[in-house]
Design brief:
Elements lengths: L4 H21 L5 H27 L9
């Protein structure tokens, strides 16, 4: 699969305002705070996936081994 030149142009036109918006949203956050925020968001996604698994199968997800 290949992206057409028009598709690349659209992606670039979408990327620029999105990057500016994200910079504004996270202004003032330290790199450590951004890393912690990302980590917490990923944990939320994992928890949501566990809930979906439970609702689909009726069985709790097995905890990850340490």
């Amino acid at each position: 699969m290949r992206i057409t030149p028009a598709g690349r142009d659209w992606m670039e036109s979408f990327r620029q305002p999105t990057q500016r918006a994200m910079s504004a949203v996270f202004r003032g956050f330290t790199p450590a705070e951004l890393a912690q925020f990302r980590h917490m968001c990923l944990r939320l996604v994992e928890n949501q996936q566990r809930i979906e698994h439970y609702l689909r199968t009726g069985r709790p997800d097995q905890p990850a081994s340490a």
